[in-house]
Fold this protein.
Amino acid sequence: MRAAYFKEHGGSEKILYGDYPDPEPGPAETLVRVRACALNQVDMLLLDGRFPPPEGLPHVNGCEVAGTIESDTVKGFAKGARVVVFPGFSCGTCEYCLRGERTVCLRYGYLGAHKDGGYAELVRVPVPNLVALDERLSFEAAASLPLAALTSWHALVVQAEVKPGQTVLVHAAGSGVGSAAIQIARLAGARVITTVGSDDKIDFAKSLGAEAVVNYRTQDFVEEVRKWTGKRGVDIVVEHIGGETFEKSVYALTRLGVMVSIGSHDTHWGRMDLRQVYQKNLRVKGTNLGSITELTTVLDHVARGLLRPVIDRTFPLSNARAAVQYVLDRKQKGKVLLVP
Ligand SMILES: [Zn+2]
């Protein structure tokens, strides 16, 4: 098959496009022909070596895949059936799986991280991870949802228990997580303030439902949150940047507020003023991904027009290097996709 892969760490120039061995499915796996694959920030960490692929190099990135079943032996799916792939792998037998908390499985892994992913014509997938794709959803729309939108859904709806009338700070409206989180918070009846890195993303952020937009390069987001909430602070912060953004977010929260930490796309490190945590009785909740049931709920909301998949650009797989550079340059407004 053809794939966009890398065999050493670095920037987009390390992405190679060419022949790559066909994936060989194991006993409980099948092959999916990739029709669309979305890029994610975690791809950049895998590429530059901050999160080196556990199975080593060469490696094919790509966590979010929609496509068709390549085999005629998959129970419940005909050959050619349209599917979207749930990207998390769990063992089903460890203490946490047995407690129903598969995202903290002792042997947890992601498509495109712990196994080769969807920057390719074919990908091997555990059969339980296949989700039938509604005819109303395009492959591109479906591929834009299973990691970023699902993670945002789980963070806001399940972990932070967002409620009508609450206020939410969503970092990075232009990102996949941010563009989904704004819409999900609005769907729940909350009000949203968000951040962007350039003024040309302000209208985009508002079109998703954000009431206030802060350019974090020219404005202090804590000050702007305080102004927007009449000095009160927000009930929830959706944090996925790390470093100074994480550190300052604690000052943007009101008493009894919740910070959901769902990524560390700039740095894995962040300090915290603990006085803020105990004096304001804050909750800091780590979260990753969500359940397959939540993914089908997200897909259903999109099919019914209640959530909008935010797709910025589609690149041919052969031009994956340009797609990666586009994301590294932080140019995107929503998801960037590869199509073989
Ligand atoms: Zn497990």
User: Anything to note?
Assistant: The radius of gyration is 20 Å.
